[in-house]
Amino acid sequence: MAQYRIVSGSVAVISIQNPPVNALSAAVREGLLLSVRAAASDPLVRSVVISGHNGPFCGGADIKEFGNVSHLESGPHLVEIFESVEALAKPVVAAIEGFALGGGLELALACHYRFGHSEARVGLPEVSLGLLPGAGGSQRLPRLLGVRAALDMIVTGRHVAAGEALKLGLLDRLTDGNTVDAAVRFAQSAEGKPLDDRRLGNRPCPPLENIDAFFEEALIHARGRARGAAAPLACVQAVRGAATLPFLKGMELEKRLMETLMTSGQAQASRYCFFTERGAARWTTPTGARWDTCRARPISTAAVIGLGTMGRGITVALARAGLSVVAVETQEHQLDEAQRAVSRMLKGGGGVSYSADLQAAAGADLVVEAVFEDMAVKEEIFKQLSSVCKPGALLATNTSSLDIDRLASCTLRPEQVLGLHFFAPAHVMRLLEVVSGPRTSPQTVAAAMQLGRRMGKVSVAVGNCPGFVGNRMLKPYLEQAYFLLEEGASPELVDAALEEFGFPMGVFKMSDLSGLDIGWRVRKEEGLTGPGVTADQPMRTRRGRRYSPLGDLMCEEGRYGQKTGRGWYLYDRPGARVARSDPWLRSFLEEYRERHGLLARRIDQQEVLERCLYALINEGFRVLEDGVAASPQNIDAIYVFGYGWPKHRGGPMFYAAQVGLARVLEGLEKYHKAHPDSPHLQPCSLLRRLVASGSPPIHKWSEVVKGHRSQL
Ligand SMILES: CC/C=C\CC(=O)SCCNC(=O)CCNC(=O)[C@H](O)C(C)(C)COP(=O)(O)OP(=O)(O)OC[C@H]1O[C@@H](n2cnc3c(N)ncnc32)[C@H](O)[C@@H]1OP(=O)(O)O
């Protein structure tokens, strides 16, 4: 689908037409090539403008076709089309509005001139799909911008705003007006002028000194950031080809690298993440409410109660989304400090007012309570909010694990109570768990989901249970990590295995960063440790299950992690970030093992991964079984956008499918046999049923889940 028309007597305007993002589907590719040929052969046509229909220039290749070889191979290939564009003997101008991304920018690079709207953005984001710019982009961009700037864009995949693109030389001109009209005028002025120098395929790459050393360093840098992803490294190799090989040889290299990436599990996983991120917007809840059947009331004013780290971040996120926010902190000294911190983050006032009085929340459409994790305190606040707030106002808690229903019961409006579980730092992290209880109304969920989108979050609707989805699944993962320490592993060994898998941080470094005292407080609330535990109770057993008191003992020593300068690792000072091994911890673990008659054994990285990840995945199946998450895709979105699960591994449930459900089951059976006192290792019945049904692909799991739901 490409529209072809002649304007101003001599300019062929080819308009890509494939809403919503004008992706280059087989039909578009067919239409584009036919149009280019028509323009080439029509003697009346003296120049060409390529644009996108109804706004965006082009969002790139059609990602939906990638999983389907027959679709991908039908119609002309992008490389062939772009060659025809570049070879055209008449000037071709790309008129870029909205965005030119991936194949869209590669098309623009094949044009002889690029006109952009001042609000447009351009980029080669293929790397985040586990790919490289495989339609000439890796070869043409370095020839236009030079190696450094091109490599940065290709390896990071970042979107570049029009102003920067102009400075880089990626766009030739900008306009604030109608881009197509401006491009048409320009195309006419270029008619008959020589084009050889405008064809990037004809140009050499601008020279670079110490080319070998430059790429050596680029590779090391990319490897350090890639966390096991292959695409960034392939991008470096392809750009090196552009810098060192003639164009056609470089194109051959690009093709070879692309073929390897395209068929890889990593590209499949990254593509899956692209769609799970967007699919989360089509939410459903355990009570049967759906995204397409309820309308959300817009929220324009909000109050945040409690201005600790979370409350401040939430205030910033809400203000940046354009809401007018009143930030409430009853402790005056905290209020002053918070006001300064929020203003710094917002670089000014940003529509936020401050108060020490809960009454200030009276006029808000939404209240987010973000005080510390103490049920009694939260209950008291919800009681007060119920009477202070205007009718219709939504009351949300930012608890990470406490019971939403209990808080709803403290109010006279349980249908307007929900959880908004932000992740720290709340103004940065993409994930938002929108937690509904059995009495939360569909309109309340709809409003929260809409607000999440406004804040630029990946919002996932989940049901209410301890820890919701993310933290519930994290618990068995953490538990296995503690057990591994008891059995002979070190925090360094466990973290190395997880970081090699692709997590930005291993479990113990993560725990030091977020603070060991948070989990300690939750365990005290749950009666697992603290004054409620009697002296006659065995230290390593709770409620008939294996329990590791290691985290509690660390807290009793005042080792809360980075904030105290000591945790699972040692830090130079409280608040410092660089983790060093701590000889104290080694002795502490040795003494602990001796005291409890535990024999340290050799533990390898494979066991670390299988015990920690399979336990987490197993809980994911339970979450599905219970209906707390609506789909495995939602669980994966939570883990990728909130817990650092590497995108190129798709998320825990996708990973389980990729490893093979039968293998995961076998692993869990093996470990449960070795550790029968650890119920999290006992394979859950949904996993067993899926394996018994022949391990269907992930998008078919819901059929097996359906007949199987427990009543929450
Ligand atoms: C030989 C191979 C050569 C080249 C390789 C490539 O070109 S790979 C593709 C490179 N392009 C991209 O990675 C861009 C991906 N898209 C985006 O980043 C955003 O969608 C975009 C374009 C910035 C628009 O964002 P916006 O927030 O406005 O919309 P949204 O993301 O919700 O997307 C709307 C619907 O369009 C679907 N979609 C987006 N891009 C593509 C695409 N390239 N192919 C197919 N479909 C695409 C997206 O899934 C949404 O669908 P929906 O059903 O509504 O969820």
The overall number of domains is 4
Spans of at least 5 consecutive residues with low confidence: none
Got a strand count?
19
Please tell me how large the radius of gyration is: 28 Å
What ions, cofactors and ligands are bound?
ligand LFKQWZQV
Percentage of residues in helical conformation: 40-55%
Count, helices = 29
Q: Tell me what the CATH architecture of the largest domain is.
A: Alpha-Beta Complex
> Which secondary-structure class do the elements indicate?
alpha/beta
How much beta, percentage-wise? 5-15%
Gross morphology is globular
Distance between the termini: 49 Å
Mean pLDDT: 95
Oligomer status: single chain
Going across the major beta sheet, what is the strand order? Answer: 12-11-10-13-14-15-16-17
CATH superfamily of the largest domain: 2-enoyl-CoA Hydratase, Chain A, domain 1
Q: Under CATH, the topology of the largest domain is which?
A: 2-enoyl-CoA Hydratase, Chain A, domain 1
Q: What does the largest sheet look like?
A: 8 strands, mixed
For this structure, what is the CATH class of the largest domain?
Answer: Alpha Beta
Domain 3-hydroxyacyl-CoA dehydrogenase C-terminal: 467-571, 608-695
GO molecular function, one term: NAD+ binding
Subcellular location: Peroxisome
Domain 3-hydroxyacyl-CoA dehydrogenase NAD binding: 302-464
